[in-house]
Design goal:
With 367 residues, this protein is α/β, with parallel strands linked by helices. It folds into two domains: 9-226, P-loop containing nucleotide triphosphate hydrolases (Rossmann fold); 240-360, HUPs (Rossmann fold). The chain has 14 helices and 13 strands.
Length: 367
Amino acid sequence: MINNATYLTSRRGKHKIFVGMAPGVGKTFKMLEEAHLLKQEGIDVAIGLLETHGRKETAEKAEGLEIIPRKEMIRGEKSLTEMDVNAILNRQPQLVLVDELAHTNIPGDGREKRYQDVEAILDAGIDVYSTVNIQHLESLNDIVARITGVVVRERIPDRVLDEADEVVVVDVTPETLEERLREGKIYAPHKIQQALSNFFQRRHLVALRELALREVADNLEEVAIATTPAGEVCNIQERVLVCVSTYPNSLQLLRRGARLASYMNAPLFVVFVANPDRFLTRAETLHIENCERLTGEFEGKFIRLDRVDVVKAIAQVATQYRATQVVVGTTRRSRWQVLLQGSFIEKLMRSLANIDLHVIATDRDKG
């Protein structure tokens, strides 16, 4: 047994992950395609683990690339194979290709998961290209189960995606994926109808595609924020912040904001700023509780702050949650109040640089 610590270098390998919404979108094919281009440029490329699943086009695309043999493991009367990490470390290619990042290794193989094998390869200074489907991401497990009715057992921690040097979505339309499935390019003929009736239903594919695109957008946004100078805004995904008050029309405002978030496929945040020097009446307390309940029904996040300066508080929340759209109601202050103290809307506009402000007229008598 080779001691992997021998191969630790000062340079950690770079990790590029090809992400898809479902099997058959072309993640492995795209990975192999890029590997061929790099080989032509003189990069030493080897395949550490390839799963073709019987797909002819994928197998053909791998031709011309060196494949590091898998190691065989005897379990009972069965001979099983796994990626040979030690052989990869001995071979020391510049770039190694590893399919199915979320795979669980055979018990007794050493590391439990394939992504852990990949981390060992990266620690040895070897670059890795890998593939994974979005449903294998840990934080999305419950959402995927709710969408598809399938509980995904093999998962990777979110940090694997977060720590990757590059994440690429291999995207096709649900219609294209269904066509590939019917043509037998994803599963064997006897499995096609079952797949179409279950995981590959059109509504499932649409939702999974949105998850994949949104997850990578979030990943890109985090990178952009980390490299953006302080004070500058860099938001890729839309986020809606609704500002509610003790006025009954806040419920109307919240519903309008939730519709806006739905149209934009954006997360919803709702903020209520309470004056710490003033106690709420029972009716006002019940009203704010209703706002919080309704926010939960819209799957949003309710934020309550005790601040004297309402404008400053809203601006702080907008910055903290990286809001791109802020929704407020029309002012109920008199003209004299506006003249003496200034317009709330104007103050808010000055405080929300690079954020769109929606001022919604509501029926004051409706909740």
